[in-house]
Amino acid sequence: MTYQSISVRPISGALGAVVDGVDLSEDLDNSTASDVHKALLDHCVIFFRDQHLTPEQQLRLGRRFGMLLARLEGECALSSLARKVRSIAITGPARRRYNNTLRGLSSLPVRVDPM
């Protein structure tokens, strides 16, 4: 498994890897985003150490990989959404893998549109 723009170190025989060489607080270029996606597919679970992201940066990063769904605690405006989000799920081609997670939500997911 080769990657052009990141370093990936497996942490067990079955699944999981640590990804280095990327600052997730910055916008990812297409090559880096593709490598991160490939690492996730290759290892099922990936970890990024020493990343410091604001809630807005976390939302931007998530949107890079597809539409976000969020379960909210009570009512909130989009401007304060990041403080209220309890969980985020990926939709799109990967949605089938997350169907069990989505079925377990106690309330309907809310689509998070770009701000």
Explain what the structure shows:
The protein has 115 residues and is of the alpha+beta class. It folds into two domains: 1-52, no CATH class; 53-115, no CATH class. The protein is built from four helices and six strands. It has helices at residues 30-43, 55-64, 81-84, 95-103; strands at 7-10, 17-20, 46-48, 68-72, 85-90, 110-112. The chain has a three-stranded mixed sheet. Strands 5-4-6 form a three-stranded antiparallel sheet, sandwiched between helices. β2 (17-20), α1 (30-43) and β3 form a beta-alpha-beta unit. The longest helix is centred in the N-terminal third of the chain and has 14 residues, at 30-43.
Essential attributes:
single chain; 115 residues; alpha+beta; 2 domains; three-stranded mixed sheet; three-stranded antiparallel sheet; 6 strands; 32% helix
How would you summarize the topology of this molecule?
Blueprint: E1 7-10, E2 17-20, H1 30-43, E3 46-48, H2 55-64, E4 68-72, H3 81-84, E5 85-90, H4 95-103, E6 110-112
Parallel strand pairs: 2-3
Antiparallel strand pairs: 1-2, 4-5, 4-6
Oligomer: single chain
Q: What count of domains describes the coordinates?
A: 2
Strand order of the largest sheet: 1-2-3
Number of E-type strands: 6
**What structural class should be given to the helix and strand makeup?**
alpha+beta
Secondary structure: helix percent: 25-40%
Radius of gyration, taken over Cα atoms and rounded to an integer in Å: 15 Å
> Strand-residue fraction?
15-25%
Note the main sheet.
3 strands, mixed
- Rounded average pLDDT: 74
Total of DSSP H or I helical runs spanning 4+ residues: 4
